Amino acid sequence: MITIYHNGRCTKSRECMAFLEDSNHKFHIVKYLDNPPTFDELTEIIRKLNIKPIELVRQKEPIWVALFKNKKLTDQKIIQAMIDHPILIERPIVVNGDKAVIARPFEKVNAII
Question: Which residues contact 64 (CB under 8 A, 6 or more apart)?
Answer without folding.
Answer: 57, 58, 81, 85, 88
